[in-house]
């Protein structure tokens, strides 16, 4: 990959501390032939060029998120439990079996 001299207005990838993402940036300041400052094309925030390096995520951040999700889930109302089968159904079933038995009895006769 040949070295390309950055120029003002060039679009380069860099980490935006405001968007917290690796995004397109305009080169807004040069220092000694190197990019000094960049402007985020998404939020237009100008910040020091970070050489497209995403800062290491803080340990435990993911756990915090999971905990938060768990908290949200815990605060949500639980889905209603399926209602127990009404006793009428059981009676019906019993009646059906009784009918079957009756039919059987009739056949015997
Ligand atoms: Zn941004």
Describe this entry's structure for a reader:
The chain has 109 residues and is α+β, with helices and mostly antiparallel strands. The chain has helices spanning 61-75, 87-108; strands at residues 11-16, 21-31, 34-40, 46-48. A hairpin with a 2-residue loop joins strand 2 (21-31) and strand 3. A four-stranded antiparallel beta sheet has the order 1-2-3-4, with no helix packed on it. It is rod-shaped and about 110 Å long. The longest helix has 22 residues, at 87-108. The protein binds zinc ion. Residues 16, 18-19, 23, 40, 42-43, 45 line the site of zinc ion.
Q: Which whole number gives the mean pLDDT?
A: 83
Low-pLDDT stretches = none
Portion in helices: 25-40%
Beta content? 15-25%
Major sheet description: 4 strands, antiparallel
Heteromolecules bound: zinc ion
Number of helical segments with 4 or more residues: 2
Classify the secondary structure makeup into a structural class. alpha+beta
State the separation between the terminal residues, measured CA to CA.
97 Å
Q: Any idea what the radius of gyration is?
A: 35 Å
Write a brief structural summary:
This protein has 109 residues and is α+β, with helices and mostly antiparallel strands. The chain is built from two helices and four strands.
In terms of topology, how is this protein built?
Blueprint: E1 11-16, E2 21-31, E3 34-40, E4 46-48, H1 61-75, H2 87-108
Antiparallel strand pairs: 1-2, 2-3, 3-4
Bound molecules: zinc ion (ZN).
Which features characterize this protein?
109 residues; alpha+beta; 4-stranded antiparallel sheet; 25% strand; binds zinc ion
């Amino acid at each position: 990959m040949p070295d390309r001299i950055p120029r003002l207005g060039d679009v380069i990838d860099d980490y935006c501390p405001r968007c917290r993402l690796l995004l397109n940036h305009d080169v807004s300041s040069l220092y000694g032939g190197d990019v000094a400052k960049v402007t985020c094309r998404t939020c237009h925030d100008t910040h020091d060029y970070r050489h497209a390096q995403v800062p290491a995520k803080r340990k435990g951040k993911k756990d915090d998120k999971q905990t938060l999700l768990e908290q949200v889930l815990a605060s949500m109302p639980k889905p209603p439990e399926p209602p127990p089968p009404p006793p009428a159904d059981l009676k019906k079933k019993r009646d059906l079996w009784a009918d079957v038995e009756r039919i059987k009895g009739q056949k015997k006769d």
